[in-house]
Every structure is written in structure tokens, then in C-alpha cells.
Amino acid sequence: MKLQEFTKGIVKKNAVFALALGLCPTLAITTSVENALGMSLAVAFVLISSNFIISALKHFIPQEVRIPCFIVIIASLVTVIDLLMHGYSPTLYKHLGIFLPLIVVNCIILGRAEVFASKRSVSDTFLDAAGISVGFALAIISVSAIRELLGSGAIVIFGHKVVPALTSSPATAMILPPGAFLTIGILLALLRRAKVM
Amino acid sequence: MLQSSIRNAIRNLGATLVLTLICLVAGVLLAITYDLTKEKISEAEQAEVNQALSEIFPSAEFMEENGYYNALENGELIGYAVIVEGTGYSGKIKIAFGICLDDTIQRVRVITHSETPGLGSKVAEDEFLMQFEGKTLQELKLRKEGGEIDAVTGATISSEAVVDIVREELQRIVEGLLGG
Question: Whole-prediction pTM value?
Fold first, then answer.
């Protein structure tokens, strides 16, 4: 177990800004910080558990059919989590339910399965998945904070006003699709310029 | 030559078997989970319906009749409630709403939906649904179509879907059950 397997996923191999993975959910759901929190939790849950299983089965899965195997494992896991959450925790389901089906098509999960989990030990995989999840969470929360602040004028998380209204006429374009491209593009450029990655 | 192709065939067969096995295990796992959670999920859904109904007429009792609910307060009819499902921008939207005795909308609640998080999902929030209260059949249209409902910014299709689902159901009930 090496701690760097965990820390590398946060900044150096940040899923969104360094690997450019998972851009689809990053563009789609970063309209509010609340959404970003929900998506981060759901992704962390699926990423850690699916890559854990894939790493444990790596000697059993033949090279030629590994991608279909990974997809079956990931999709089944997402469905199982979806059903369990709906039945046993309806409140959590109300907040996270709409994000779960989106995770099946999140390429971070398959990307890490292919690059990391299918080659490394279970403990390294756990650290890697946890690190990537934290990095993804930080990325989408910062993008969504910028978009919500400029596009809605205030940041509201589960009914609590975290940042009070700055303006009565916010730039609505920021919570529409163009705002996502602008925010991600500018953040990416700044991070590259500062040589963080 | 022949030997290597036989070896290939065996390897392919092995890969096929492993994939089949994984699909089989996944399928069984899904079936078991579905069976285990089926009852719990329908309970949770029923609880959501009851919750929505009690938000529409807070102090009423509900009597189901022909697919809609009579809302009774101290035994007296104060309105009707219906649960209706329609198609939104990206899936089904399930809505509960109440009708007062004068054919206006009492309150609208979205029970389940799968609209785009952050945009379309705002049609399930109070800010949008408050607009429906007290509206008549004629006023239940988006403002750009001459009605009194403002669409959610960036989610015209989702907003229109909710308005249409409520209006069509209201029309059906006003003409059928109440007017008839």
C-alpha cells in the first residue's frame, strides 16, 4: 500500500482536469453545488466498489473479453445500488436517484477499471479509486460553485443559503450549457498555465 | 497450423464461458435484489403518494374512487385529488394535484421525475409549482401560449410537460366527473 496511489488522483491525475475523463457529467450536472455533491457521492460509491470487484477478478477475466465483463459488472452494480437505495433509503434516493443511471456511462469508472484495477492489487485499487473520487468531487464542486454563484446569484445547499444573493439579475447563461464549457475551459487554462498538473 | 487453430478455438471458448458466467452471476444477483426490494420500493412509492396527498389537502381524509381521490374534511367533500403520469423531457413525470370544488387547482406536487438535474428538475420545486395554485383551466398554459405560468429558464420542454399533464387531466375531470 502506497499513499501516493491515493494522493495522485486528487491533483496530478485529476479525473476532469488532467485525464479529461467524466466530462459529460461534469458539463451536465454542475449547475448547482447540491447536484455536484450528490454526483460525487454516487460516483465514489460505484467507482470504489466496482473497481474493487474488478481487481479481485483480474486473473479470472480473459484479456479478449475484459471490456464487456467490466461493463456488465459496473452496470449490474449500479442497478443493485439503485434498487437498494430506492427501497431502503427513499430520502437519499430522492436526492441521488437521478444521478445513478448517469454513472453507468461515466467513463471514469471504466477508465480506471481498464488502466488500474485490472492490473494492480486490491489495496492499491482501493486507494486509487478513493483518490480519483476525491479529485472528481473537488473538480465538479469548484466548477458548480462558480456556475451557481454567477448563474443563480447565490449558493443554496439542501435549503441552506451558504452564499447569500450577490445580485438580483444573475447571468443565467452560466447555468445553461455554454456556462459549463466556459467555466471548464477557463479553469483548465488557468491550471495548465500555473503548471499545477 | 491445425494445432494452433485448435488452441485458438479453445481459448475463445474459455473467454466466452467466462463472460457467460459473469453475465449469469450478474443476472441472478439482479433478480435477487429486485425480488428483495420489490415490496420495499412499492411501500416507499405508496408513502410518497400519501405524502403528496397530505400536502395537497393537509387536514383531509382521502377516499379512492374510480382512479381519483375524494378529499373529505369532517365527512364533507372539500375537493378532489388525482395522481397522473405523463411524458416529460427525459422520461415519465408522476404528478399529484388537487382540485377545489370551483374547478381551480388546489396544489401541485411532482412525485417522481427524471428530468435533467439542475435544469428540468426545477419543475419539481415549489417556486415553479406555486404558480399553479388557484388557476383555472384557461389560465393553465405557459405564458408564451397566452397562459399564466412562467416556464423555468432553460427547461421549457419540462415546464410545458408539467403544465400539459395537469391541464389535460383537469379538463378530463372537469368535463367527465364534475360537469357530467
Answer: 0.73
